[in-house]
Amino acid sequence: MNTDTTTQTSPTPQRKARKNRIDTRALLVQTGMAILTEKGFNNTGIDEVLRLVGVPKGSFYHYFASKEKFGEAVIAAYAEYFAAKFDRLLGNVERAPLDRLHDFIAEATHGMQKYDYRRGCLVGNLGQEMGGTHDGFCALLEAVLKDWQTRVAECLREAQAGGEIPADADVEALAEFFWIGWEGAVMRAKLTRNDTPLQRFAEQFFRHIVR
Fold first, then answer.
1. Each residue's pLDDT tens digit, 90-134
2. 164: which of 110, 137, 174, 203 is 20 to 30 A away, CA to CA?
3. Would you call 194 helix, strand, or coil by DSSP?
4. Pairwise CA distance, residues 118 & 134, whole Å
5. Which of 204, 160, 142, 140 shows the shortest CA–CA distance to 178?
6. Domains of the chain, with CATH numbers?
C-alpha cells in the first residue's frame, strides 16, 4: 500500500501547452537534421518537413520566422549533438587518446553505412552548398568546425603528452588537417557508396602523425 500522502498535482494546461510547443519544435529540428544531412538546404522543402512531422504550415512559422532561421536552428542542434558525441568519445579517459580518435572514425563510418552512404556530414554538406552565398550560414558552420578542431587538438595534445605522437608535432595544424581531410573523405564516401575513402584517409592520417 502506498502510504505517501503528498499531494501530486497534474500539469497545468499552460505547462502542457509549453511542453507541446517544445516537443513540436524539437521534432521539426530533428527531422530537418535528417533531411538536410541527406539532401542539403536548397533541395529540402518546408512542406516535406511538415509532412513528415505531421503539423500544418502555420505551426512551422510559429516556431521559425523563415526557412533560414530553421536552418540556423538545425545547425545549432547538429553542433550540440556532435558536442555530446565528442564528450563521450574523445573525452573517454578509459581509452588512449589516439584510440579515442579511432573510435570516432569507427562510429562515424558505421553511421554512414547505416544509411547506405546517403547521409554525410550536415556541416560539410551545407558548407559546400552555401559557401560564398550565405554569410550567416558560413559563419555558423565555420564556428562548428573550429569547435570540432579544438576538440581534436586537445585529444592530440593528450596523445603527445603520453608519447603517442612526437613532442614537436603541431597539434593545432594536425587537427585542422584532420577535419579538412575527413570532410573530403565523407564526401567521397557518399559518391562511391563505400567506406574506402574513410579508411584510406584514416590510415594515412595516423601513419603521418605517429612518425
1. 999 999 999 999 999 999 999 999 999 999 899 999 998 887 777
2. 110
3. coil
4. 24
5. 204
6. 72-209 (1.10.357.10)
